[in-house]
Amino acid sequence: MRIAMLSYRSKPHCGGQGIYLRHLSRELTALGHQVEVFSGQPYPVLDEGVTLTKVPSLDLYREPDPFRVPKLREFRDLIDVQEFLIMCLAGFPEARTFSRRIARLMKDRAGDFDIAHDNQVLGYGMRDIEEHGLPLITTLHHPITYDRRIDLAQTRNPWRKITLRRWYGFLRMQGKVARQARWIMTPSETSKRDIATDFGVDPAKMHVVLLGVDDMFVPPTTPRVPGRIMAMASADAPMKGVATLLEAFAKLRTERDVELVLVTRPTPGGRTEKLIDKLGIGPHVRFVHGISDEELVALMGSAEVACVPSLYEGFSLPTAELMACATPLVVSEAGAIPEVTGPDGLCADLVPPGDVEQLRSALAALLDDPERRARMGAAGRARVEEMFSWRAVAVKVAAQYEQVIEQFRAEQTGQTSTTGQTLQTSTQGA
């Protein structure tokens, strides 16, 4: 198949969407399919054989000057103007404007592909792609409505609440586009349920396809660092639960010699840095970002215990990657995290999200029990080997592509299609 993968921002360390794009495109290519990725900035890291077509935006949120004011010569068309004006009005424009750029591109290029794959863009322009004769399938990792609820709940400033509601204004668009989507893939039963609830999407047109873990994530060959706790957060945002972890860590520091390594880039002068100063734990907390894949794997394998304190996750790739490194885990019983670690408690200790004392107690107990850490790490590694393979993900996604293509072609030729019934049957068995 000839596949167009569409993603408005795709750098792997920007979050799970970028990781999904990279590994899925690589494995689809390895299966013999032709994959071309269309992306805005920050551009993805792709593997050999995958083609990248850049779809440049104004890149308004780039480092080190986010929310920048572009020079007049940078504006190329009215889409660029719309992008800048939405930002000026405190909105987030990238999904909307990327979808318009892609719709314009596909008007001329639809014949080059058998299917287009929307990686949670869900902009209005996506609805135009099928009008150009190209079937579209959508991946929706989780509804961002959860991010909005958590952000608003943790914000006391009335003006900040107004700007947050404006920032998340794109969700009205995403909900409409999701309800009109032909077929949606999502990585967990939790996400499927929440998409149906928050976006009103018919569960019959959603199918769960688990995510994978790259083969580079392996157990360490050197001893772990005593007292090292680590956590990963793709964004310095309330939903990642970093504040809960910092407060639990501060209590641990009064009892024992521990250090905390956070794989994230904190907002300068933001809530995380302020909380660290307030708790007086600055010398014992280290931030790491911009490291290579090899350095990340080594860091994951260096921790005695890792923590995933998120208040919600649609899947949680960091959880699965840490399990692949045989790193013992304390995780929040939130969103799809329990689906990743399993129902039996062998691979991780689960604690209520946002509960500082429960998190402190679980971390302390695991640090004090090296035999249980070893058993937990081995169980996590075994679960990843059994369930989370990117090659298996690619095979399942390719099967979804074939069904959607068949359905679309049947509609185009006016034939009676049974594919919709097949899709519904596969969903009921998921």
Provide a compact summary of the structure.
This protein is α/β, with parallel strands linked by helices and 430 residues long.
Which keywords apply here?
globular; 2 domains; 16 helices; 44% helix; seven-stranded parallel beta sheet; Rossmann fold; 13 strands; disordered C terminus; alpha/beta; 430 residues; single chain; six-stranded parallel beta sheet
Strand order of the largest sheet: 3-2-1-4-5-6-7
First-residue to last-residue Cα separation: 25 Å
The percent range for helix content is 40-55%
Radius of gyration: 22 Å
- What is the ordering of alpha helices and beta strands? EHEEHHEEHHHEHEEHEHEHEHEHEHHHH
The CATH architecture category of the largest domain equals 3-Layer(aba) Sandwich
- How many strands appear in the DSSP assignment? 13
Characterize the structure shown.
- The chain is α/β, with parallel strands linked by helices and 430 residues long.
- It has 2 domains: 2-212 and 391-428, Rossmann fold, CATH 3.40.50; 225-387, 3-Layer(aba) Sandwich (Rossmann fold).
- 44% of the residues lie in helices and 14% in strands.
- It has helices at 16-30, 78-88, 94-109, 145-153, 158-167, 170-180, 189-199, 242-253, 271-279, 293-302, 317-324, 337-341, 356-367, 370-387, 390-413, 419-428; strands spanning 2-7, 34-39, 51-54, 115-119, 136-139, 184-186, 206-208, 225-232, 259-263, 285-288, 303-308, 329-332, 349-351.
- The longest helix is centred in the C-terminal third of the chain and has 24 residues, at 390-413.
- Residues 416-422 and 424-430 have low confidence and may be disordered.
